[in-house]
Design brief:
By secondary structure, this protein is α/β, with parallel strands linked by helices. It has one domain (53-243): Vaccinia Virus protein VP39 (Rossmann fold). The protein contains nine helices and twelve strands. The strands form three sheets. It has a seven-stranded mixed β-sheet with strand order 5-4-3-9-10-12-11, with helices on both faces. A hairpin with a 2-residue loop joins strand 1 (24-27) and strand 2 (30-33). The chain is globular and about 55 Å long. The two termini are 26 Å apart.
Length: 266
Amino acid sequence: MAAWRDLALRAPILKQWHEHRQREFAVGDIVLEAPRPPVSKSVRKSLRRNAYEPAEAYLVRRLVRPGDTVLDLGSGLGLTCIAAAKASSGGRVVGYEADPAIAPLAEKNARRNGVQVEIRNRAVARDKGVCEFHVRRSFTASSVLPSKRSKPILIEADAFRDVVDEIQPQVIACDVEGIEKDVFSSTNLSSVQRLVVEVHPEAIGLVGVLKCVQDLADAGLSLVPPLCVGQVLVFDRDGSSSTIEPFRSHRPVAGNPSANGRADVA
């Protein structure tokens, strides 16, 4: 039967039908449910190609240590939250996902992978209150910043400084589509030992990226250049992260890291 199935899927129309119906995708030892809708065709395609947040998942898995408390901003389907929960071995993991259609998937995926993660369906902003969230066809491009071909909705937002004061994370993973330049300078980051952030120069410009780096430096978090991958930047407080092997795109990204820093395939 399997042989007939593999043969049938060589026909383009049957292959397209199969890909449309596929709901679950394996990313190393993590399984993500990503049905269409609400997940866009482009995100599902990146999942099939193992190209969905590969650097972030790799880095979080290695920056988080057992017992760490982790704050994940822009959790999406829950990949980085789940990777953090596996690495923290029982530490607290809190994820923020603003899109009301995607946040339930992050919760479901955490349960599917047997980890404890708290997902909050709220935005994170400079100030607490109600804000406009601009939903795009691909949730990865949705943001509190306006953009073309987006649909604005009103959602509750927590102030970043209040969230950090409450959770006191040792590690922060941040992919918030452009507000990174506004939130670090007004926040007490003394609990944070390691941080990974995807910057968005297309939204905040080079000056905004430089401000983000300077704000983190002022908070005692130094850039770790060997671990930076494109727009994904890594910072730490004591330099210990420099011993981590840099991400290489040909590696599995979510498997359990072995002693030499490489990823084991589950």
